[in-house]
Amino acid sequence: xxxGDDRRQQILSTAERLxxxxxxxxxxxxxxxDAMSLSKxxxxxxxxxxxxxxxxxxxxxxxxxxxxxxxAVAACEGGALDKLNALFLRGGLLQxxxxxxxxxxxxxxxxxxxxxxxxxxxxxxxxxALPMLNxxxxxxxxxxxxFTRYPEDIGELLLLLFTNLTDEIAxxxxxxxxxxxxxxxxxxxxxxSVETLLNAPYGSVLLFPLERMAEAYSAVTDAERRFTx
Length: 229
Description:
Elements: H1 3-22, H2 29-36, H3 40-44, H4 50-75, H5 80-90, H6 99-109, H7 115-142, H8 154-175, H9 180-198, H10 210-228
C-alpha cells in the first residue's frame, strides 16, 4: 500500500470511529484532524468534505456486503431458490453485521438530504449482486423452479425491487420507527412481486429477516439516546 493510500485509510478509519462515538453531525473535520494530528491540507488532499468521506466509507461497506453475498451463495449447498434467499438475506443496507454503520447511515442518509448517498449505496448493491443473481436465475430455470421469458434482464429488475424495499424499510425505521406494521406490509408486497416475476412458488422467497429489522430499529434508537443524552 502506498503512503498516500495508507494515510487515506487512516482518515477513513478515524472518521468512522468518531462518527460512531459522537454521531455524524457532532463530528467536525477539525475533530478528525485533532485525533490524527493532521493538517487541513492533509485532509483535503484526500477528501473534499465530510460527506465525501462518508461516501467513501459507504463504498468500503458496500464491497464488504458484496463479499458477504458471494460467501453466502458459495456456502449454500441447496438449489437456486436457496441461493436466491441466501443472496437477499446478506445483501442491502440493513443486512450488514456492523449495526453502528447501519445506525449511522439511517441517521444521515434517511433524514434530511441524503438522496445522493442512498442512490450510491443502491447502485453499489445492484452492481455487486447482479452477476451472482444472473447465475442463480439461470440455474433456477434449469431446475424448473423459476420461469421467465427474460432471463438475461430480469435480474436487474429484481435487484431494483430489492433495493427499493430496503430504501422504504430504512425510511420507516429512520423517520417512523413505531410504524413497524407499515414495513411488514411493504415487505409482503415486494416478496410477492419477486415471486410473481420469477413464477416461483408462493412463500418461497425470503427478502428480509425480521430479526434484522428489529436490530436496525434498536441500533437507531440506541444511537439517538447516546448522542442526545
